[in-house]
Amino acid sequence: MREQVFILKGNIIFSKSRTELEIHEDSYLVCQGGKVKGIYRTLPFRLGGYPITDYGESLIIPGLVDLHIHAPQYSYRGLGMDMELLEWLETNTFPEEARFSDLEYAASSYRIFVENLKKSATTRACVFATVHRPATLLLMDMLEKTGLCTMVGKVNMDRNCPDYIREGTEESASETVEWVKDALGRAYKNTRPILTPRFTPSCTDELMEKLKGIQKEYDLPLQSHLSENPSEIAWVKELCPWAEYYGQAYDRFGLFGGECPTVMAHCVYSGEEEIRRMKENQVFIAHCPESNMNVSSGIAPVRRFLDEGLHVGLGSDVAGGSSENMFSAMAHAIQSSKLRWRLQDDSLKALTVEEAFYMATKGGGEFFGRAGSFEPGYEFDAVVLDDSRLKHPQPLDVKSRLERMIYFSDDREIRAKYVRGKRIEL
Amino acid sequence: MREQVFILKGNIIFSKSRTELEIHEDSYLVCQGGKVKGIYRTLPFRLGGYPITDYGESLIIPGLVDLHIHAPQYSYRGLGMDMELLEWLETNTFPEEARFSDLEYAASSYRIFVENLKKSATTRACVFATVHRPATLLLMDMLEKTGLCTMVGKVNMDRNCPDYIREGTEESASETVEWVKDALGRAYKNTRPILTPRFTPSCTDELMEKLKGIQKEYDLPLQSHLSENPSEIAWVKELCPWAEYYGQAYDRFGLFGGECPTVMAHCVYSGEEEIRRMKENQVFIAHCPESNMNVSSGIAPVRRFLDEGLHVGLGSDVAGGSSENMFSAMAHAIQSSKLRWRLQDDSLKALTVEEAFYMATKGGGEFFGRAGSFEPGYEFDAVVLDDSRLKHPQPLDVKSRLERMIYFSDDREIRAKYVRGKRIEL
After folding, report:
1. Rounded to a whole number, what is the distance in Å from the CA of A100 to chain B's nearest CA?
2. pLDDT value at position B200?
3. Average pLDDT, chain B
4. With contacts defined as CB-CB under 8 Å, which chain B residues touch A80?
């Protein structure tokens, strides 16, 4: 083995399947060349001599994946939550995002976001920036420095938003090309550009067409919003009377999965046809349960998505969600699925701890390729959790300790974090 | 002024009404003899010379009130959340509560609970213990030492629970009398016994009658559970066929408000008659939104309770709820009210920040008399919050800073805490 090898020791947990955990107590997790080599209860002779970090009683889990977060909104997380989606965009989002034309302000805001994301259990994220090319590149530079693995998008908006933040159609396309070229030119190791039309109401058909051209030319993944809120959906119907369902408003332009990896946030109200098409086109769903509560959207039928075999991960959706903490996102996913079962449709059973953990790791991780698991060959993203702050008088097994983490851990529990085999400085 | 006077300086916030905050920036909050004397922008001449603690930019709010928490369940908070109420009681609650017959175990468990409650923003709480008299007294001793102001109940259960935790009817009554006498004999300053029949399914009619006698003799408040979960309610109907609604199963024995202060947890499914009677009898409602999600109960119609002028406070309901953090309880109350509006009944508007804050302070505080406000004459319970950990690039007004606290503060923000004019050692 010429490639770099190192070994972590602790209580190792990852998803064996959507519904089952695989737990290796007091075992060795081996990284070779940035990938998972294997898990061993007793270290094989041939692995002797490589550096071992013994994390004792700590839990070692795959890094968490946030499939949907808005970096510029981090500054007002937890604020103005007494509004629904469209009012909230107008009142909070657009004025704040407009400030990112000022690079100095962008730096001061993104510094806080990046620092806190680094300290969290998140190792990978799909990130919305703003319409501004320089600030988006700045954010990418900053994220690259952390060692986290991210896809970051300059937002496109050429209609239905205030003048001060609206792009011309040509301008939006050409700025996107410039941004993509610039980003690719910087030869980041862990940071990739992702096409980011905000959502159908803010992008003209013409712009969508141009984005498809750019996507083809540069082979880019895409992120956007889908079927989040009843008023938004009604609006899309008005804007695209030809679309039988919201997803078609992307699909018509070839921006709904298929060749290019695509992730759509929310899908609270996706119906039969939309679900069928997402499945066919391997569209990833970013389920954002806290945001869906905070802006009064509703609760997505996640059990259905999982049963149908769709790709589902979790998103914090800051600032629709208040926190970048993906453990909270897991708890909110479980909690809201229970309310959905009770209040809306008792044919869809509530989500379990195992399922929430799956979505936050491998479910979302697959959007990045082989990430979110400790199966051999997966990229080595690991988070080491020291739960000793959370005292208990009785003995607890490893699964119970993981469950507690979901309900109340925060950055104080993060003892170490690795992305693609590199340790992140916390 | 012969009584002790001291003064805190900071950004003072409390509820002016159910729907409005009163905010005094950079002002003086004066405590005299354990009570609020007044708030001043400029300190009057006659208050010169008294000690001032300047908390600078910090927020100063009334101490938070937790109207419903189970101390022995703290050890398994965040665990076994994949069950509904009755299964969860059988699987988690009863086996764990049984261990409190062992005083040593009780001490090791309650130590953790008491320490964390002390470090939280909670200054007052209504606490369930277990059926065990010695462990309940131990808990009261421990809580008294913290300086927090609590009502604590030895639980009564003489039916429908496993042998190992079930009391005989006579035994339950006589142990209760012994416990009350012992507790009163200890002459606590801040700790009061509160009658605690667990809920109708676990108390026979005969025991309820005896408890009424004890309540009269010792003039005791009462806490219990009401209309939490559909299966529980159906069970109460079977057990008490004479009751037209669940509340009557308490009311028939005189244990549903009126003369003696009474707080009922949950009230998720309270109908017309139950609501009318709670109003008439001044029964307090402990709304426990996180618990109601976690054990799949549903969402209480809190907007309706508030509109009708009922007394409503918040409860963490650990371990149905995962955390003692009453800021989280406020966030959960707002979030679940939005889902209720969206999924169940759009005639009841979602709760606002102001309303959640009111419930967590004055709404619940009134169960303790004049607590939960900074109006003159209220008992001086105050929490000082340093929110500087939660960085932001833009200026934020005081109300926004409070709103952020609701969504993501934890014990790290608690800079100081006062109960009845005494500073608590954190």
Report:
1. 11
2. 97
3. 97
4. 403
Q: Cβ–Cβ contacts within 10 Å for residue A313, how many?
A: 30
pLDDT at residue B201 greater than cutoff 50? yes
Chain A residues touching B82 at Cβ < 8 A: 350, 352-353
Q: Residues of A numbered 219-258 whose beta carbons fall under 8 angstroms of chain B's beta carbons: which are they?
A: none
User: What is residue B1's predicted lDDT score, i.e. its pLDDT?
Assistant: 45
CATH code linked to domain A5-63+373-423: 2.30.40.10
Q: Which amino acid is at A301?
A: P
Q: Tell me the average pLDDT across B277-291.
A: 98
Q: Which CATH superfamily is domain A64-368 in?
A: Metal-dependent hydrolases (3.20.20.140)
Q: Is the pTM of this model over 0.80?
A: yes
Which chain A residue has the Cα nearest residue B334? A294
Give the pLDDT confidence of A191-224 residue by residue, as tens digits: 999 999 999 999 999 999 999 999 999 999 999 9
Task: Answer yes or no: do A394 and B335 touch at CB < 8 A.
Answer: no
- pLDDT band, very low/low/confident/very high, at A1 (cuts 50, 70, 90): very low
The predicted-structure confidence for B406-417, as pLDDT tens digits, reads as follows 998 999 999 999
Please state the domain extents for chain A.
5-63+373-423, 64-368
| Chain B, window 320-379: residues with a beta carbon less than 8 angstroms from a chain A beta carbon | 322-323, 331, 334-336, 338-344, 350, 352-353
B323's tokens: 């955390």
Distance from CA of B343 to the nearest CA of A (A): 7
- The whole-number pLDDT of residue B2 equals 53
Q: Is the pLDDT of residue B372 over 80?
A: yes
> Is this prediction's ipTM beyond 0.95?
yes
- Nearest CA distance, B84 vs chain A (angstrom): 10
- Binned at pLDDT 50, 70 and 90, residue A40 comes out as very high
